[in-house]
């Protein structure tokens, strides 16, 4: 799973899909995950990164991560392989 | 011998041309004239004297002194070609016109008919031939799309209100009720369809086109063809804000190769000459349905120039016989946002254009 190559992102959390003209705002954690997806990092690496950095329960992270990915898919921002 | 109306100034670098344009109605449902003029004013090697051609005394462009140098009222399209020609001939005697750019669908028929007479006066034009113009007419759109492999909603052309039951039974609701030239309404019931029929037909006449409703994202595409099947430029935008009249009030340029290919295919098939706009509905599955083909620049054409493709500039060059290199790129993510501005003028100016037909 990776972010579509033409999706533009900024450090401020702005995400722009040039194919549809849609734009979104993500919070800081959301942007961290987006930047890892951009680098084609697999789920286990993303998970490790977040769990090491934030005080969050693994089960809670996984649920929130699944929700987030579902949103990114819904808005046509990621390629599913 | 025809007189060359492009005057080169002393430095021999800047060419001076008098161009006449319609579409000065920069209102909530705007004509493209003012946007086209803005594009022309960005041509570094041309200096234009802008002659506005207006239909009504309150078209805002008439009073925009930094946009239009002089305006002449011209007869409505219903007055016919002879009346239009006589007026243009008069204007040409005073202004020595080099080029005419009509910007309304409804007037284009008369202008196309008059091309040989304009040429005889030494006035250049660059718009589609009658055959191209008629092929993309709303009435012929479905057959044109079917023949050439474009997706297009099914439609039925009707002249009587009773005939509404035919498309209603065939396509179901909602239905799109469209005027021959302008205006459309989405009707969710038979009552609403009847009301829309009466409202639109009383304003724009008959026939009425009843179209199948296609759900999706509204995308517009401005493009220009050289008349030999080559695309000179194409810029797609997504409407970000749509007025209650269905007009774009804000839009953003998109990156989508399939939309550019659609424009290229249209130009190749029709050998389109001049600017045009494709109105597209992209379904959630990504299929692009052609909803309408407007045979002139859209009112948001200045965005194409801001994004790197100055289509009106390309039209001017082609009209004067220059070979124009096709645009290959444009900036994605360029946004236009229309705004309202109260232009203040004096009653004397209004009186002049109303009484004398020129200002």
Features:
heterodimer, A: 81 residues, alpha+beta, three-stranded antiparallel beta sheet, two-stranded antiparallel sheet, 3 helices, 5 strands, B: 359 residues, Rossmann fold, Dna Ligase, domain 1, D-amino Acid Aminotransferase, Chain A, domain 1, six-stranded antiparallel beta sheet, five-stranded mixed beta sheet
List the helices and strands and how they pair.
The complex is a heterodimer of chains A (81) and B (359).
Chain A: E1 2-3, E2 8-9, E3 14-16, E4 23-25, H1 28-38, H2 43-53, H3 58-74, E5 78-79
Antiparallel strand pairs in A: 1-5, 2-3, 3-4
Chain B: E1 7-8, E2 15-21, H1 33-40, E3 46-54, E4 70-73, H2 81-95, E5 99-101, H3 105-113, H4 115-120, H5 130-135, H6 141-148, E6 155-158, H7 165-171, E7 175-178, E8 184-187, H8 190-204, E9 208-212, E10 217-226, E11 231-242, E12 248-253, H9 257-270, E13 273-282, E14 288-294, H10 302-306, H11 311-319, E15 335-337, H12 347-356
Describe, in short, the structure shown.
The complex is a heterodimer of chains A (81) and B (359). Chain A is an alpha+beta fold and 81 residues long.
Order of helices and strands of chain B: EEHEEHEHHHHEHEEHEEEEHEEHHEH
Query: How much of the polypeptide of chain A forms β-strand, as a percent range?
Result: 5-15%
Please give the domain count of chain A: 1
Judging from the principal axes of the Cα atoms, what is the shape of chain A? globular
CATH architecture of the largest domain in chain B: 3-Layer(aba) Sandwich
Adjacency order of strands in the biggest sheet of chain A:
2-3-4
| Rg of chain B | 20 Å
Which structural category fits the helices and strands of chain A?
Answer: alpha+beta
| Distance between the ends of chain A | 6 Å
Give the tally of structural domains of chain B.
3
Number of helices of chain B: 12
Mind telling me the CATH class of the largest domain in chain B? Alpha Beta
What structural category characterises the helix and strand content of chain B?
Answer: alpha+beta
Strand content of chain B: 25-35%
- List the uncertain runs of chain A: none
Largest β sheet strand count, sense and barrel closure of chain A: 3 strands, antiparallel
Per the principal axes of the C-alpha atoms, what is the gross shape of chain B? globular
Largest interface: A-B, 7 and 10 residues
Counting DSSP E segments of at least 2 residues, the number of strands of chain A comes to: 5
What's the N-to-C terminus distance of chain B?
A: 32 Å
């Amino acid at each position: 799973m990776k972010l579509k190559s033409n999706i533009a992102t900024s450090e401020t959390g702005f995400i722009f899909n040039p194919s549809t003209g849609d734009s979104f705002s993500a919070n800081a954690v959301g942007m961290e995950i987006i930047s890892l997806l951009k680098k084609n990092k697999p789920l286990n690496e993303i998970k490790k990164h977040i769990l090491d950095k934030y005080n969050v329960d693994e089960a809670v992270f996984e649920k929130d991560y699944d929700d987030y990915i579902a949103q990114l898919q819904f808005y046509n921002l990621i390629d599913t392989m | 011998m025809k007189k060359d109306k492009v005057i080169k100034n002393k430095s021999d670098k800047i060419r001076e041309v008098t161009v006449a344009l319609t579409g000065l109605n920069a209102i909530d449902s705007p004509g493209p004239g003012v946007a086209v003029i803005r594009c022309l004013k960005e041509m570094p090697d041309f200096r234009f004297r802008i002659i506005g051609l207006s239909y009504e005394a309150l078209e805002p462009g008439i009073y925009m002194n930094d946009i239009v140098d002089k305006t002449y009222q011209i007869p409505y399209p219903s007055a016919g070609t002879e009346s239009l020609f006589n007026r243009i001939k008069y204007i040409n005697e005073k202004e020595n016109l080099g080029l005419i750019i009509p910007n309304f669908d409804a007037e284009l028929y008369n202008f196309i008919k008059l091309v040989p007479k304009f040429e005889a006066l030494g006035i250049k034009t660059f718009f589609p031939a009658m055959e191209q113009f008629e092929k993309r007419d709303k009435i012929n759109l479905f057959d044109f799309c079917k023949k050439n492999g474009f997706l297009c909603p099914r439609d039925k052309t009707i002249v009587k209100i009773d005939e509404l039951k035919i498309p209603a039974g065939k396509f179901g609701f909602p239905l799109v009720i469209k005027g021959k030239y302008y205006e459309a309404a989405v009707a969710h019931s038979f009552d609403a369809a009847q009301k829309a029929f009466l409202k639109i037909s009383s304003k724009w006449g008959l026939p009425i086109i009843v179209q199948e409703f296609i759900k999706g994202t509204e995308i517009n595409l401005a493009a220009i063809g050289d008349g030999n099947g080559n695309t000179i430029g194409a810029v797609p935008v997504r409407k970000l804000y749509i007025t209650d009249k269905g007009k774009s009030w804000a839009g953003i340029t998109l990156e989508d190769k399939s939309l550019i290919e659609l424009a290229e295919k249209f130009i190749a098939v029709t050998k389109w000459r001049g600017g045009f706009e494709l109105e597209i509905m992209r379904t959630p599955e990504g299929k692009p349905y052609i909803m309408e083909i407007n045979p002139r620049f859209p009112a948001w054409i200045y965005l194409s120039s801001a994004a790197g493709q100055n289509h009106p500039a390309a039209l001017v060059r082609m009209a004067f016989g220059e070979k124009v290199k096709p645009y290959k790129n444009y900036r994605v993510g360029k946004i236009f946002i229309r705004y309202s501005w109260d232009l203040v003028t004096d009653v004397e100016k209004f009186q002049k254009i109303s009484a004398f037909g020129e200002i």
